[in-house]
Design goal:
Radius of gyration: 17 Å
Number of strands: 0
Strand content: under 5%
Low-confidence stretches: none
Oligomer: single chain
Distance between the termini: 17 Å
Largest sheet: none
Shape: elongated
């Protein structure tokens, strides 16, 4: 049988890991976009938008997974 405390902490730990990873990506986003912009400004915009949308996409997918599990 699972420990009730670990059941409550698990989503918080997962959210913290996601936020830290997203923070690192967002920290380096301007440098990456500027570097790609040297080759193609349109591609830089596409990469920037995709990286920002991935942040919200991860939380959306996680919410769907939790709803399906009944958490």
């Amino acid at each position: 049988m699972a420990d009730p405390k670990s059941d409550r902490r698990s989503p918080a730990i997962a959210a913290a890991i996601i936020l830290v990873c997203a923070g690192v990506v967002i920290y380096f986003l301007p440098a990456v976009v500027l570097w790609i912009g040297n080759y193609s400004p349109v591609l830089a915009i596409i990469v920037g938008v995709c990286l920002l949308m991935a942040f919200f996409g991860v939380f959306w997918l996680r919410a769907r997974y939790q709803r399906r599990r009944g958490v």
